[in-house]
Write a structure and sequence with these properties.
single chain; alpha/beta; Transferase, Pyrimidine Nucleoside Phosphorylase, Chain A, domain 3; four-stranded antiparallel β-sheet; 16 helices
């Protein structure tokens, strides 16, 4: 068996065997296969695709290419939630404490952001003192104690995917559905959860730009999970505009805390958080129908138990939230600069990609792995699709620490808005559910 034959087989549109996939993944993990051959194989997959069996075999081979988390010491049915990435997507900060407050153990390993999409660990690390690095024993003990932990991925979790993704990132092969599905699900399987809720984003700010692609990705991931004995539900949600108002690490933590504390927040963030939490607690066996799960989730949110649970989790991981401070002691940007409407009209578009790119330009995200994050900077979106604005109204505000970045960021943010003369058609936030 050799790599060139495997590349040729996939180039010609033939299905690879489990043995060939295993050989390939081992070579990716241990470095025996050079980058250029991995890139050639990834491009062949991009154009030729993979069968469901190939995608499943690739997922399992990558999942077991390194450390696999053993969560058997955690009492109860362990669940996890994953988003395919979006702009302003701070639902993990709301969903995890809500589910934990409802008695469901959530053992979550999360990542850092790259490009225009944010990472949950970056958001949490904007809290002074928060420690994302935890030993396995600390991780298990915390979930047993308070039902919730969100920690950074261990260095040896799915090493094959780390190398493969880095190569895909520089060879224009990231947006291959089989490779996205296997990348996500290999990490979820290795992380050990028994029930997984997937939030599959679609729209300008997501990997998947079209609904058909999002549905295909959701189906493939659900199928993979069920094939290895996991319970999986995928919720397809709109990412054509930012979720909530805040985009940027400390800004998003602040928004999540306010939602949990008051029981109310941006309508889209609240709706999606309730839906994802309801799906999680259902997978954990708490309720037998989704409407009851939604009602109980809303009750938990209104009662403030989720806020108490998030502050408990933050404290358990060394974080310090100052409840006497109007911004909870989170870092604040030096400059706030508004973007104003240049005419009257309805907001027809708030392009999520452009808003995310604005935040990244300010330092809220990374263009390359290893770039330093500024936790205080970002964007607050005050006007969203369908809102009426008059000339001079503030549509959004830039939060910045470096004045020299403002001209480019202001233009990028202004370009994300398009005003129209008639109210735009409403778009459902939750588009579909794949079971």
């Amino acid at each position: 068996m050799n790599t060139q034959d495997i590349i040729q087989k996939k180039r010609d549109g033939k299905a690879m065997s489990a043995e060939e996939i295993g050989f390939l993944v081992r070579g990716i993990s241990d470095g025996r296969i050079p980058d250029y051959q991995i890139a050639a194989w990834a491009m062949a997959v991009y154009f030729r695709g993979m069968t469901e069996q190939e995608t499943s075999d690739l997922t399992l081979a990558m999942a077991y290419s390194g450390e696999v988390m053993d969560l058997s010491a955690i009492a109860g049915k362990k669940v996890d939630k994953h988003s395919t990435g979006g702009v302003g997507d701070k639902t993990t900060l709301v969903v995890i404490p809500l589910a934990a407050a409802m008695g469901v153990p959530v053992a979550k390993m999360s990542g850092r952001g790259l490009g225009h999409t944010g990472g949950t660990i970056d958001k949490l690390e904007s809290i002074p003192g928060f420690q994302a690095e935890r030993s396995h024993a600390q991780f298990v003990a915390q979930v047993n104690s308070i039902k919730a932990a969100v920690v950074s991925q261990t260095g040896n979790l799915v090493p094959a995917d780390k190398r493969l993704y880095a190569i895909r990132d520089v060879t224009a092969t990231v947006d291959s559905i089989p490779l996205i599905a296997s990348s996500i699900m290999s990490k979820k399987i290795a992380a050990g959860a028994e029930g997984i809720v997937l939030d599959v984003k679609v729209g300008s700010g997501a990997f998947m730009k079209h609904i058909d692609e999002a549905r295909q990705l959701a189906r493939e991931m659900v199928q993979i999970g069920k094939g290895v004995g996991r319970e999986v539900v995928a919720v397809i949600s709109d990412m054509s505009q930012p979720l909530g108002y805040a985009v940027g690490n400390a800004l998003e933590v602040d928004e999540a805390l306010r939602l949990l504390h008051s029981g109310h927040g941006p309508a889209d963030l609240e709706e999606l958080s309730v839906e994802l939490t309801a799906r999680l607690v259902m997978l954990a066996g708490r309720y037998s129908n989704v409407e009851t799960a939604r009602q109980q989730t809303r009750k938990c949110l209104a009662g403030g138990a989720g806020y108490d649970k998030l502050t408990e989790m933050v404290a358990a991981q060394g974080g310090r939230l100052d409840e006497k401070d109007p911004h909870y002691g989170l870092p604040q940007a030096a400059f706030q600069v508004p973007v104003r409407a240049d005419r009257d009209g309805y907001v027809g578009v708030v392009d999520a990609f452009q808003v995310g790119r604005t935040a990244m330009l300010l330092g809220a995200g990374r263009e390359r792995i290893g770039d330093t994050i500024d936790p205080a900077v970002g964007v607050m979106v005050h006007k969203k699709k369908g809102d009426w604005v008059q000339e001079g109204d503030v549509m959004a505000v830039i939060y910045a620490n470096r004045q020299q970045l403002l001209p480019t960021a202001l233009k990028c943010l202004a370009d994300s808005y398009r005003l129209v003369n008639m109210p735009p058609a409403a778009q459902s936030l939750i588009i579909d559910t794949v079971l």
